[in-house]
């Protein structure tokens, strides 16, 4: 559950409960930082679950990563997943589960825990993921 910088409960639909990065990073509350995907900001996250096993990327996840332009990718808090961050439009979040494939795509109304643990040589920028989003 997301928390405010002063310890209250935050809501993905109430910007008055959100904090700046500076305030959140300085807060002793909670267990880490996160980002609220807000309508209109064009920031999207493709969440790949259970795709890392001791640093080895599952073939289905590697295929998706290879289709993405250079963009920020981080290891998720569990250490077994990846977050592909970028720009684009996602009208409705979605979950895809097919065999071992576990992908979630979000563009608004979601809180994503952020680790900042860069995956491989991912750049510190957000690329346009519009083409990739159209294939998921």
Write structural notes for this entry.
The protein is of the alpha+beta class and 136 residues long. It has 3 helices and 10 strands; from the N terminus they run αββββαββββββα. The strands form 3 sheets. Strands 2, 5, 6, 7, 8 and 10 form a 6-stranded mixed sheet that branches. A two-stranded antiparallel sheet has the order 1-9. A hairpin with a 6-residue loop joins β5 and β6 (82-87).
Residues in β-strands, percent: 25-35%
What is the overall number of helices? 3
Gyration radius, to the nearest Å?
Answer: 15 Å
Give the biggest sheet.
Answer: 6 strands, mixed
First-last Cα distance: 27 Å
By DSSP, the count of extended strands is 10
Q: Any low-confidence stretches, pLDDT <50, length ≥5?
A: none
Question: Given the helix and strand composition, which structural class is it?
Answer: alpha+beta
Q: What's the order of the H and E elements?
A: HEEEEHEEEEEEH
Mean pLDDT: 93
Q: Quick one: overall form?
A: globular
Counting copies of identical and different chains, the oligomeric state is: single chain
Question: Which percent range fits the helix content?
Answer: 10-25%
